[in-house]
Specification:
Blueprint lengths: L5 E5 L15 E2 L3 E4 L2 E4 L6 E10 L5 E12 L5 E5 L11 E3 L3 E4 L4 E9 L11 E17 L6 E17 L9 E8 L5 E7 L5 E11 L5 E3 L3 E5 L4 E6 L9 E9 L6 E9 L1
Parallel strand pairs: 4-12
Antiparallel strand pairs: 1-20, 2-3, 3-5, 5-10, 6-7, 6-9, 6-11, 8-10, 11-12, 13-14, 14-18, 15-16, 15-17, 15-19, 19-20
C-alpha cells in the first residue's frame, strides 16, 4: 500500500522564548582564538572592520598563518572546503586582512583584522554570503639545503588549525522558510527526513519525530536534533527506531522549528515499523 505524505504548518498560539547568546572561544594546547564567528549585516556600498584575537597560552613563541577559504555543509551536515572565491556565495572577493603571517610571544595576544568592503552593486543586497577564516599555527623546523640549487629552505610544520565562520546577511532580507520534502523508512531501517531551506537566511533548526501506533494509540516522541542550514541548502536527518518499539503501522509526523515567531514546518505519513 502506498501512503501519502501530508504537509502542514504548526503554530503555537502562545509561546514564550528566552534567547541565550553564546559566544565561543576556540582553544588548543598552545593557542586560543576569539570569537569563533564573525557576523556582518551590511548593505551594498558599505564596509566594516572586525577582529579575531589570537592568544598564545604556551611558554614559547608561536607563528600563525591566516587564510580565507570557501565552505559548504553537505546534506549530512559535513563541511566541504574550497579555495576562496570558488562558490557563488563566496565573500572572498570583498574581504581583506591586515596580515596573513605573524609571531606571538608567550602570554601575548595579536589581532587579525578583517575588513568587509561591499561595492555598490544591488545584487549584493539580494543574498546571504559566507566564507571562512583559517587560523593555522605553524612551527618552523630545521633549515635544509636543497641539493639542486644550494638554497636554504625552512621547513614548516602545521600544529593546529581553527576555522572562524564569516557570515554576511544584508538587512533587506526578510524571508525565513523551510520545506520538508520527504519522510520515509530507508533501506537501513532508519526514518529519513529530508528538508530544504527555501528562505533567505541561514536557519538554526530543531527537528523531532512524533510517532503514534495506529492500533494501540501509543505515542512516542524523539529527542530534538539541532542543525543549521544555509539558504538553498538541503539536509538529511536519520532517526533510529526508538528502543522497545512495538511492531506495526505508525502515523509519523516530522516537525521542524526554525523560528519561534513563525509556524513550524511539519509533514505526516504512515510507516510500517
Amino acid at each position: 500500500m502506498k501512503y501519502i505524505l501530508h504537509k502542514f504548518k504548526l503554530k503555537l498560539s502562545c509561546l514564550t522564548v528566552m534567547g541565550l547568546l553564546v559566544v565561543g572561544t576556540l582553544s588548543a594546547q598552545n593557542i586560543s582564538v576569539y570569537p569563533t564567528t564573525l557576523d556582518f549585516n551590511l548593505s551594498a556600498g558599505n564596509s566594516q572592520v572586525q577582529r579575531v584575537a589570537v592568544t598564545n597560552v604556551s611558554n614559547k613563541e608561536i607563528f600563525i598563518e591566516a587564510e580565507l577559504g570557501d565552505w559548504l555543509r553537505d546534506p549530512m551536515g559535513n563541511h566541504q572546503y574550497f579555495k576562496s572565491d570558488t562558490l557563488d556565495r563566496s565573500l572572498g572577493p570583498h574581504l581583506t586582512m591586515d596580515r596573513n603571517f605573524t609571531s606571538i610571544a608567550p602570554g601575548e595576544t595579536e589581532d587579525v583584522q578583517l575588513t568587509l568592503s561591499l561595492p555598490g552593486e544591488p545584487e549584493l543586497n539580494e543574498a546571504m554570503r559566507w566564507s571562512m577564516l583559517f587560523i593555522t599555527g605553524v612551527e618552523p623546523k630545521a633549515d635544509i639545503e636543497e641539493e639542486n640549487t644550494g638554497q636554504v629552505r625552512t621547513q614548516i610544520r602545521e600544529v593546529f588549525r581553527f576555522g572562524i565562520h564569516i557570515y554576511q546577511t544584508p538587512p533587506t532580507l526578510t524571508k525565513k522558510s523551510a520545506e520538508i520534502y520527504d519522510l520515509f523508512l530507508n533501506e537501513e531501517g532508519q526514518i529519513q527526513l529530508e528538508m530544504k531551506n527555501t528562505g533567505e537566511y541561514m536557519l538554526q533548526c530543531k527537528a523531532h519525530l512524533e510517532l503514534v501506533h495506529l492500533e494501540s494509540g501509543k505515542e512516542i516522541k524523539t529527542e530534538k536534533r539541532e542543525f543549521p542550514v544555509f539558504p538553498e541548502g538541503e539536509r538529511k536527518l536519520l532517526f533510529e527506531k526508538p528502543e522497545g518499539l512495538e511492531n506495526g503501522e505508525y502515523a509519523v509526523m516530522a516537525v521542524i522549528d526554525f523560528d519561534p515567531n513563525m509556524p513550524m514546518e511539519a509533514v505526516e505519513t504512515v510507516i510500517a515499523l
